[in-house]
Amino acid sequence: MRKTSETSTMRRTILRALVLAAVLILTQGNGVARAASAAGIDADVDAALMKLYEEQPAAKMLARKAVAVLVFPNMVKAGFLVGAQYGEGALLKKGRTVGYYNSVAASYGLQAGAQSFGYVLFLMTPSAVQYLNRSGGWEIGVGPSVVVADEGIARTLTSTTLKSDVYAFIFDQKGLMAGAGLQGSKITKIKK
């Protein structure tokens, strides 16, 4: 009985520490995952795209070819066995914001910590944009095919090798959790 009580106390202590870490990340001056105004989201989107284009020339090439670009500049993920991630972003067409969205995901399994990151989805076909607009909440992994462009894939992308509906770039990962994934993320239109 004593061992169960000690284990339970240790789990609560770890959970409190993780919640505190998540709160610290959320309240830092970088605007991570706080409900932002439309102007705040737009500014974060512009800054994120400039940074991504500097680091990944393939992303800039994709932007020129894409029908639309969906940017989530400030995602936050935290968890201990059960995790959650959240962020807000904007959909751009021809460089102009045409809508605002949030991205939410939950996960479970061997995980502990907190992190922040950003991601960009390059919607390459009109059908991918139509799916986003009419789905009422697009769950990544269902619907248009998504290719996550890691460094290897990004180096081989050319205008003649583009075959997928959507290309994703994950960038600017910071924090105490390993990896950032998009599978199962639900993207929903929001009003700003």
Architecture overview:
Strands 1, 2, 3, 4, 5 and 6 form a six-stranded mixed sheet that branches. The chain has helices at 2-27, 38-55, 57-65, 126-134, 151-156; strands at 68-93, 96-123, 138-139, 146-148, 166-175, 186-190. 35% of the residues lie in helices and 39% in strands. Helix 5 links the parallel strand 4 (146-148) and strand 5 (166-175). By secondary structure, it is an alpha+beta fold. The protein starts with a helix and ends with a strand.
Compute the separation of the termini in Å.
52 Å
Order of helices and strands: HHHEEHEEHEE
Shape: globular
Counting DSSP H or I runs of 4 or more residues, the number of helices is 5
**Overall mean pLDDT:** 76
Using only CA atoms, what is the Rg? 18 Å
Structural class: alpha+beta
SSE blueprint:
Elements (H helix, E strand, L loop, with lengths): L1 H26 L10 H18 L1 H9 L2 E26 L2 E28 L2 H9 L3 E2 L6 E3 L2 H6 L9 E10 L10 E5 L2
Parallel strand pairs: 4-5
Antiparallel strand pairs: 1-2, 2-5, 2-6, 3-6
Helix pairs in contact: 2-3
